[in-house]
Amino acid sequence: MLSFLVAKVPRRKTVVENPIIFEGGRSQLYLYPKDSDSKYVMRCTTPPQPSAAEIKAGASVDNSIINPPHHFHVYQEEYFEVVKGTMQVKLDGAHEIVQQGETVTIMPGIYHWFSNASESDELVVDIGLNLNSKSRDERFFRNLYSYLEDCNRAGGGEEAAKKGGTAAGGPKTAPNPFQMKLFLHSADVALALPGLPKFVGMPLGRALVWVGAMVGKWVCGFSISYPEYYAG
């Protein structure tokens, strides 16, 4: 094991927080029961997208840690309900705009990502998940986003986090790709490779995550969960 060669990111204690506040209050996650015997909900709040002028001035299009990478779920079905704002979602290459009060269901194997579609208003979206996998999913989301937040803070410090980024302290610490793949593997999430036919891209995306997860666990000494982020 070569964990002594891996840069350590200080972990902020978020285990008892609900909602969990990120990026200086610009984004948050809130996990709560839905009025159903089989569903629970993760409510995501994300900031407005940067304008064209802000992007030209150097702002990142990927301006929030809540914005997911292009991915797919091996077994899990998700549904999205926009509570406030406007969401843009990409499903197997097709872009859709989802307005407040509208819903989208995403079946296993569908390549997807989502983000705020507005340059002026925050997006609040409820992501419905299966109650049978609640513990696994809550562990995954709490660990993933708390880790990404801590990578931000490790680069910019507390003052930078309060301002929603790393402006006060310089470039953020990049998340370790092997830790990220270990998180993804633990929740049966795979990377989407949309440039390839799905019969090739899906097994390859799963294989890339599996290999990275094994390196992360057995070589780098990473874990799928940390007590500062999740108790269970």
TrEMBL record:
It comes from Coleophoma cylindrospora. This is Cupin type-2 domain-containing protein. Pfam families: Cupin_2 (PF07883). Coiled coil: none annotated. It comes from the Eukaryota. Transmembrane segments: none annotated. Residues 69-122 form the Cupin type-2 domain. Gene3D superfamilies: Jelly Rolls (2.60.120.10).
